[in-house]
Design goal:
- It is a single chain.
- The chain has about 100 residues and is an all-alpha fold.
- Helix content is about 65%, strand content about 0%.
- The chain contains 4 helices and no strands.
- It is elongated and about 85 Å long.
């Protein structure tokens, strides 16, 4: 099972990005600090997207909105399925109840 830890603070990520921009390599920073060089490179790329300097992926705001929309879509699908099952149940129940006034 992979080792996981809490996400790094935004301030820490920002500091790593600034160090990369000042000329340090992600590999140097990975040896000195805990995050991997790949994670640091990803933070640099994401910040460039957020600043509008790159358009090869989603900005942080777009990612957040996509997550929200996916959650909402999942919730709506669950509600739709529940309503479908309820409608089918009520349809079966209404067909099985004998009509009043037809007894002799």
């Amino acid at each position: 099972m992979p080792n996981t830890h809490r996400p790094y603070a935004p301030e820490f990520r920002q500091q790593m990005v600034e160090l990369v921009r000042s000329g340090r390599t992600p590999e140097e920073l990975a040896l000195e600090y805990e995050p991997s060089a790949g994670a640091i490179r990803n933070w640099v790329v994401q910040q460039e997207r957020d600043a509008g300097r790159r358009d090869d992926g989603l900005s942080s705001d777009e990612r957040q909105e996509l997550r929200r929309l996916r959650r909402e879509n999942k919730q709506l699908r669950m509600e739709r399925d529940i309503l479908k099952k309820a409608a089918a149940w009520f349809a079966r129940e209404s067909d099985s109840i004998p009509e009043r006034g037809s007894s002799s």
